[in-house]
């Protein structure tokens, strides 16, 4: 008898975020507890090493898909926190416009840009 298999959280498509809060998000009639990366290849569970000090390593999957991303929204939790210079430089070098904002603002902006079929991605830290 096999034990429980834990798989990486992944939704293979693009979908608007229906709700956020209580430590997670709802999208595509599903819910996810924790933070999210919304990329052209799909929606992934995301757990940055330190949500208060985001680093380039936290965005490896974003960098892998950089050719398909023009705008990256970074939901930094309840409050706006600036992105570290190393992150801003990495995104700029790949022609990605990075925009930090509260997670609520990131959800709303992501949904609008997604509806406009823009080359948008989002990295959103869950809020309670």
From TrEMBL:
It comes from the Bacteria. It holds the Pfam family DUF498. This is NADH dehydrogenase [ubiquinone] 1 alpha subcomplex assembly factor 3. CDD domains: Mth938-like. InterPro entries: MTH938-like_sf (IPR036748), NDUFAF3/AAMDC (IPR007523). PANTHER family: NADH DEHYDROGENASE [UBIQUINONE] 1 ALPHA SUBCOMPLEX ASSEMBLY FACTOR 3, NUCLEAR PROTEIN E3-3.
């Amino acid at each position: 008898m096999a034990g429980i298999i834990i798989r990486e959280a992944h939704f293979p498509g693009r979908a608007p975020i229906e709700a956020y809060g209580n430590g997670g998000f709802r999208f595509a009639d599903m819910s996810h507890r924790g933070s999210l990366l919304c990329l052209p290849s799909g929606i992934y569970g995301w757990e940055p090493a330190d949500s208060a000090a985001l680093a380039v390593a936290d965005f490896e999957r974003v960098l892998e898909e950089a050719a398909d991303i023009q705008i990256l929204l970074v939901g930094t939790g309840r409050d706006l926190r600036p992105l570290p210079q190393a992150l801003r430089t990495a995104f700029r070098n790949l022609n990605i416009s990075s925009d930090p904002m509260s997670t609520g603002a990131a959800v709303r902006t992501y949904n609008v840009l997604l509806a406009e079929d823009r080359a948008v991605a989002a990295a959103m830290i869950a809020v309670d």
